[in-house]
Amino acid sequence: MRIPYLLLKTEMKRVLLSLGFADDKADTCAGMFADNSRDGVASHGLNRFRVFVDYLKEGLVTPNAEPTLVNAFGAIEQWDGRFATGMLNARLSMDRAITLAKENGIGCVAIKNTNHWMRGGTYGWQAAEAGCVGICFTNTTANLPPWGGTEPRLGNNPLVIAVPKKGGHVVLDMAMTQFSFGKLWQYQAQNKALPHPGGYDSEGNLTTDAAAILATKRALPIGFWKGSGLSLVLDLLATILSGGNSTAAVSKNGRRETGVSQVFIAIKADDEQNEALINEIIAYTKTSAAIDNGEILYPGENMLRTREKSMAEGVLVDEKIWEEVREM
After folding, report:
1. Residue 105 pLDDT more than 90?
2. Which of 103, 228, 275, 321 has minimal Cβ neighbours within 10 Å of its Cβ?
3. Residue pLDDT, tens place only, 166-208
4. Hey, what's the torsion of the CAs at 258, 263, 264, 268, to 10 degrees?
5. Oxidoreductase: present as a keyword of the record (predicted)?
6. What is the DSSP secondary structure assignment for residue 313, as one 8-state letter?
7. Active site residue 169
């Protein structure tokens, strides 16, 4: 079903206020959840809201805590998230990185003791809207077996790279698993097969069955061994730069996925000089013959269409989940 964007945001804000959020934090947080669903990422929008509420009730997220600056080294800062809302911590971190980039050409903010940032692409868009190239990544709890292994020891450690572009920014937002766990849960709930193999079943065979992959905990890394290696390196960087928890530490702390480490980098861009180069690269990419009369899209292009449709016709939501939130 489709519902108006404002109604979606208002309902989630109501729930957050009832759980002790200050009004401004509740408004911002509810807006970010609603934005994710509006842009077609329901797995980290309305569909993830119930999990977020559970974390609040368990005391894993401190709603009104404020992150604090720990160290500053020129264009680099380290922050302690103090287990505050991950989305708000991430937004503040990228904002600081943008400020540092405006002053120094580049800015890097690493934050420890923070929580799930929901849709990582949000902070890539934030940087691009400010005229900066944005790069950010996070570690997670162990949910991905290393290449050659059968037990999760790596995180799916999402990576975001954003490049500002007039008419629609280029924003790559990807996990180190072939399918994010939000997508796996979505396909499982809908009892649909994945469009491509996303992991292994109980017999060690590649499968498109999301339920089987979730049961074995053997998701497939992107690019096989390459994704496994990239996941490890991102965890190393997030841990070293923030001075916070690694995937191993997050997995062993017994607090589910909380206290993660994240990095936010902003690079000041020259819009006039770069615009022609960006358009040339995209135009050339699109000259490739498409499969089955399909369309070649750059990362983030289809999201703008989804956003426009959501604002015109209403945000697409799962009716059952929507009713559960309304009853909270």
Report:
1. yes
2. 103
3. 999 999 999 999 998 888 988 998 899 999 999 999 999 999 9
4. 180
5. yes
6. H
7. no
